[in-house]
Amino acid sequence: MNWTTPDHLRKQVQKLWEKGAILRSMATEEPLFPLKLAFKKPTSRELSDDFDDVRKWISLLVEKQGAYRIEWKTVEHRILGCNSIPWEIWIDSLEDGLRMIGKGKEAKSFASLLALTNDRDPSILPWLARKPLQGLDLCEHWTAILDVVAWLKDNPKPSIYLRQIDLPGIHSKFIEAHRLDLGEILDLALPEESIDRRYTGKKGFCGRYGFKEKPLRVRFRILDQQLSLPYGGEDQDITVTEKAFASLNSDVTRVFVVENEINFLAFPQFPGAMVIFGSGYGFENLSQAHWLKNREVHYWGDLDTHGFAILNQFRSVVPDCRSLLMDEKTLLEHRDLWGEEITPERGELSMLTDEEQSLYRRLNSDLWGKSIRLEQERIGFNHLREALDRLKQKKSIQHRQYFD
């Protein structure tokens, strides 16, 4: 028997809720009800062949009837004669639909949200109509969101940091936590002259609405005492803003980028070099340091699929950078120290060398084991020193060849 049951009817209304259609109708004031539901009923042949099952099915529909209304039709059967059977199922009102799926409390909260928004800033109502379930999730924060919108209308392009906004009941990280939703809402509520549309997305929030950007920072160490800078302390562990790093005037000829802090702190001295503490995905803090493209740059990350993905991304900043200790030989020599990647990277990485690409594909094919990884900090420092010695020897040979 594949006729529509009360459970099928409830699922139809539940699906409308999950799509946001019911709340959207409240926001737009375009009634969704009365609504005829999809309804599959017995055929004429089934009436005669499965008459007992048909009676049970009708009894079940009638027994569970409450939120829905049954429209009956009298059908004449050549064997059974005249019989009334359910012909259509209707949900007559919003209240009936909500009762059917047990969402009356949520709808009441959304109605309060609409009333508050209509009273304080009707320009935001289209957002609630477009994303009603998202609005419902923000119910407990909605008053604060309206307060932020009102504050920005009174203080366009404030040129302060986000956490400097002083509004009662709004903690310092509130705007940062809700930037995506706030951005869409502010685009509706603010006048065009208060929005700089060159900036987009979560990262562009500050520039788009006139806030100061928190400066990105670069942490690095000079590995050659002959190149020491006039700041940074005795150990030359230095942190500067991205702008200061971009304008750095240094005789550094080689740069190492590492992802592990201990490896960064313990990185050996090396002639004419510095080491930068990386930050995983995202190299915005180095993107303006164009002088890096004129240096020999080596990237050392984890030996796993994400390590190669980060290397691939770093090459968008420094296209000619070389990988360090991210090769098959290093991987296989540390077999006893392998771990497992929880969610390996599977995408195409177009900026890897042929050798790196081959190893990346072998890792993804589970050639040596399932989702294996070798974290950078597990590689012994003797391997690092040997790799650095090879670089020194290579430079020495090139130097002799130049003078020969």
TrEMBL record:
InterPro entries: DUF3322, JetD_C, UCP028408
Domain spans labelled DUF3322: 6-187
Pfam families associated with the record: DUF3322, JetD_C
Domain of life from the UniProt record: Bacteria
Domain Wadjet protein JetD C-terminal as annotated: residue spans: 210-388
Name this polypeptide is given: Wadjet protein JetD C-terminal domain-containing protein
Source organism: Dethiosulfovibrio salsuginis
